[in-house]
Design brief:
The structure holds 2 protein chains of 2 kinds. Helices cover about 40% and strands about 15% of the residues of chain A. Chain A is an alpha+beta fold. Helix content of chain B is about 25%, strand content about 0%. Chain B has 2 helices and no strands. The chains are: A alpha+beta, B mainly alpha. Chains A and B meet through strand 2, helix 2, helix 10, helix 11 and helix 12 of A and helix 1 and helix 2 of B.
Chain lengths: ~500, ~60
């Protein structure tokens, strides 16, 4: 079953204030997008970040001391929980809300990499459009948004990649198969970072590393996401029938600007999950995965080796090579998208060794390093110059006239899988072969009859009987198409639900 | 969509990188060739960035 999505928390700031209130700014940013009241009806039932995939439930989630203090102050603010979240469900089936003081855009569920990229790019447009509206009300271009993962002062925020996987795969098998892959995935998917930092600790300039998140990885497995961050998050929130599925929620990834890097990050991870399902992953077990994440990130020559439990050493590139070979051997010729991922994965690993310049505009860390080295030569400055961290930040600005990556892309120097028409389609509707399209269609067709929306259901208003569209097992494209046709043609949600339920009953 | 045609979707008229040559120290990406208008535009954009911007940039911890 292929289904994946990305959640991206954006950094937000105002350049006209010396003291920025991130709670208010993030709320106001999301509300600047608000075009109709129906969008604010997220259904929080069924969201439980305390459920752990290892088979237990934790009583609380860890936050650092500073965040505890912020949370205590937030409790006295004159906003309700719903006000603070300002949750919106968009006509393309995406979710846009304030998550922990960061505007977050969660793509609708996608089945193909091209749809995922289009939806991710649509997210950039949506948050920037909200910033434009907010700036208009402020009377200047004061609000800036960054698709990155650090503030260079020890505070990180995430870009999570999610995958629907069969619950029949034992969780320990997922962990064993994924850990070495995730530790080394940054050689392809890292966005690059100037300096070194750690949770709540200072910034050390003078270095360039592969990943923005590596410094913040503190443990191998954990249900936590804001403190004690794990390489593999164990949150068990399937957003689907829990008897059949789990949602793998990965928080180690960086927020990529390069489409190519996003496609490879998700495409290779999907193949590794399928390798695990088939019992075909390479036999690798790292001695200290958390230390290895940092060690590999801090070696831009990609020559660092990390210890395996069997006593041997291996480089990040060699770990990736072993996964690539297993995937190529198992999946070559399966379908067009799989072949594309395999070809580009193999080529990328080769180019990282032989001619890294050819990955500019494709991999973020390579592109950012190239820009910074060019600038350093031009300005005759060294790695310890604070200007470089500012340029690193500006690489991720999603303002089309300010962002460095977007500037590079505008000059045609970035590899693209999406065209403008793809992004415009993604702004208007969800991928036609996933339940995201159904969610978006309900929002567009029946905005005034929706009581609440969740990833797996839509509840409609009126009457005493439950009027809920249950999508917890709506994954087959043919069924999605049938459901879309019914909701497109029906005069009301009741008519649509009646027709859909009759169809399901006749099949059972 | 045909994945075999994806590289042709690149919006660049040509390879954005300079021609291959001897490996530079560290094996990293080479600097772009000087004098191209594209490079000058991007450098102008970079020079407009406030050197103190990252120092002032503060966020709260997210997920």
């Amino acid at each position: 079953m292929r289904l994946f999505g990305l959640e991206t928390e954006y950094g937000i700031t105002r350049d006209d204030l010396t003291e920025v209130d991130p709670v208010v700014e993030s709320m106001e940013l999301v509300r600047a997008h608000l075009t109709a009241s129906f969008e604010r009806r997220w259904d929080y039932a069924g969201e439980d970040p305390h459920e752990d995939a290892r088979g237990f439930r934790v009583s609380g989630l860890a936050q650092d001391k500073e965040e505890d203090e912020f949370a205590a102050r937030d409790a006295h603010r004159p906003f309700s929980f719903q006000d603070m979240k300002s949750d919106l469900v968009l006509p393309n089936g995406a979710r846009f809300y304030n998550d922990h003081t960061h505007p977050e855009y969660s793509t609708p569920e996608c089945r193909t990499l091209k749809d995922l990229l289009a939806q991710d790019r649509a997210g950039e447009r949506i948050v920037q459009r909200a910033a434009d509206r907010r700036n208009k009300s402020l009377g200047g271009e004061h609000v800036q948004l960054y698709k990155n993962n650090t503030d260079f002062h020890g505070h990180s925020y995430g870009c999570h990649d999610n995958y629907l996987v069969p619950r029949s795969i034992p969780f320990p098998r997922l962990v064993a198969g994924l850990l070495p892959f995730l530790v080394s995935r940054q050689v392809i998917a890292g966005t690059g970072k100037v300096g070194i930092e750690a949770q709540e600790s200072g910034f050390v300039p003078g270095h360039f590393q592969l990943s923005q998140r590596a410094d913040f990885m503190e443990t191998e497995l954990s249900v936590d996401t804001m403190h004690n961050r794990p390489i593999l998050n164990t949150r068990d929130e399937p957003h689907a029938d829990p008897r059949t599925f789990r949602r793998l929620h990965l928080i180690i990834g960086d927020a990529n600007m390069c489409e190519y890097a996003t496609a490879l990050k998700v495409g290779t991870t999907r193949l590794v999950l399928e390798l695990i399902e088939r019992g075909a992953v390479p036999s690798l077990e790292l001695d200290q995965p958390v230390a290895a994440v940092k060690q590999l990130s801090r070696d831009i020559d990609l020559k660092a080796v990390v210890r395996q439990k069997n006593g041997s050493s291996i480089s990040g590139l060699d770990i990736q090579e072993q996964y690539y070979r297993a995937a190529a051997q198992t999946f070559a010729g399966l379908d067009e998208e799989t072949d594309w991922v395999l070809r580009e994965w193999g080529d990328t690993l080769t180019l990282l060794v032989q001619d890294r310049r050819r990955l500019i505009g494709k991999l973020d860390w390579v592109t950012k390093l190239w820009l910074l080295e060019t600038f350093m030569q031009e300005e005759r400055i060294g790695w310890d110059d604070p200007w470089l961290a500012s340029l690193d930040l500006e690489y991720h600005n999603v303002h089309p006239e300010r962002g460095l990556y977007l500037g590079l892309e505008a000059e045609g120097k970035a590899w693209r899988m999406t065209a403008e028409a793809d992004i415009q389609r993604a702004l208007a509707a969800g991928p036609a072969d996933t339940r995201g399209a159904v969610r978006g269609l309900c929002v567009r067709r029946f905005p005034n009859q929706i009581r609440s929306v969740q990833w797996e259901r839509v509840r409609f208003t009126g009457g005493l009987l439950p009027r809920t569209l249950d999508m917890s097992d709506l994954f087959e494209p043919s069924e999605v198409n049938r459901c879309l046709a019914i909701f497109e043609a029906a005069a009301s949600p009741v008519d649509a639900l009646t027709a859909w339920n009759e169809r399901k009953d006749s099949q059972s | 969509m045909s994945y075999s045609t994806m590289p042709e979707r690149r919006e660049s008229p040509g390879d954005p990188m300079p021609k291959p040559g001897p490996t530079e120290e560290g094996g990293g990406p080479r600097r772009p060739e000087t004098g191209s208008p594209e490079k000058d535009n991007l450098l102008k954009r970079m020079k407009k960035v406030d050197p103190k911007q990252a120092e002032r940039y503060r966020q709260r911890t997210g997920e």
